[in-house]
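Morning. Coffee machine broken again, so started the prediction first thing and wrote up yesterday's gels while waiting. Chain of 585 residues, entered below exactly as on the submission form.
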Amino acid sequence: MPEQNFLFIHKDAGSRSLSRSYDEERHNLRRHVRLNRPAPTPAKAKRGFALASGKWARLMPKTPVPAPDVALHPAPPPALAPDEDFQGEEDQIRAKPRTKPKTKPKLGTESEDFKAEKDQIQVRAKSGAELGTECALSMINGNATDPFGTSSVTIDRSVHRLLQYFLNVSHPRNWHAEVRASKGEYRFRHFARGRIINCLRNESSMYALLASSASQIHYFEGTTPPVDPGTLIGKALHATRERVSQTMTSDNNDHNNNHDDNHPTVVDIDLVFDIHALANADFFRFDLHAARIHIRVVAQLIHQLGGTGALDRAWREWFIAGDEFIAAEVFEKPFFHHSICDPGSLREAGFDSRPGSSAARQHVYEATILDNTDAFVNNPDLRASAIDIIEVAQEMQWQAKIAQTDGSKLPQERVRWRHLRAGALRSRLLHLDSADEEAEVTRLALLTWMYMVTTVVGRRRTMKVIASRLYLTLRARFRSSGTCSVTGGGGNVARNGDSFLLWALLTGACASEGDRGLRKWYWDALSSSYSLASKAEGKELTASVVFKLVGQFLYCPDVQRPTIEDLLRENAVVGVGVGDTSNPI
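Came back before lunch.
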């Protein structure tokens, strides 16, 4: 979306977050502050006395004005070029909502009311220019409803950009399946809007959220954020310490005076979210140790608040998702259990399985993948996880076909089930313990495929990290058994689980996009293993053979086909582009 020049925030005790304004409220939405507006010439002074102060980007908030039910509302920028004139009364900055037309004083004969308002605004502009753009974040002198002491808050352009990134990119990405299926809408959008309101109440919340957005813009989007993420993290930590210290002092005073007033407690859900935002910021800037520490604190504070069962569903899913991705990259178990947000199988969730799904699953069982792979035979938990993953893969195939024909017929509840079930299965695999290298290879291969297919692009970094761990485990296994010529060993790799091993190598190659050395190792191992397993030394892989191999187990054409075709082109494989001959389950 194009960058907006304004973010107007109107609020009172009964406001609704980011709601649309009604006609009677629009009189209070006309305090437009033009960013970087040059000072007017004397000939244009009659167009508005408020233009005399010049640089509006540094204006402090104006005096609070009583307003009806006015809500937090991001207004689009007016379609005026910087050198155009204001068009009439609607573009003037008003210190009071207009209830009836005022008689505008003639030039040079200003009334007393206009003089008082003019002097007040000029003083505000002077203080804003001296304090800089950060004053809107640091001066929190109001009450809980209006912490800035005003009914209208002007947001700096850089701050506005970071907040818009959170609203329109970062937060929806956590529920990407619902966003794609419903054309940008998802049920927890109000949750993001509530976070913006909380930023206006707490300086620490504002800095933490800005740090998270800036970190994602810099380290994931690959663009320069308006503010350095490290600077924002430092400010957020300092503001959080001050906030906790002040709250603890207030608690001690109330305890000594036997007061029971309503005031913020040391541990509340907003503080937990702020710490989670810092974990997210550290995660994207590759400081996984700090991110893991923050998530541990989040888990401990949630336990003090009554556990995940006491949280709203939006909070619960948000915290669990962050815990899962950080745990996956440090190869540790998540702090939250996978069953917290697990909806169960389709039947357990109250949905009817799609026609033919049972037959498709039986076909997989008869294909000997599960029955002839040692890890699935010896580890019942790993086998059960694989069966549940197969069900998710089938549901993804069915939903993809429905979306291609008529997306409006796609049941949103089933889309949500797929999203929650996939996250629960990823977390379950992270919690599993591997007794040997065979089980660890199987677990990592399943995890790699799950992160490749069931997560949005913003989380594909985790897929690459797990693919690297899979490479180390496979190399150690090949060296210990001497069954792969790629690592200098020899012999025959033909044994139980050949099909799954080939599928795992192909999955690792697809997941290693961007790392040519690792991708080449996977491809060479795949070629050698296929040649030995097929008992035809020197037999080369073709495009049709590769698609057949990947289609023997888990395969999602919409996601994997382009990646596989790129892999085949990199290795000059014959038959690229002739079509996908696989038979995905």
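The chain is about 55% helix and 0% strand. Going to sketch it on the whiteboard this afternoon.
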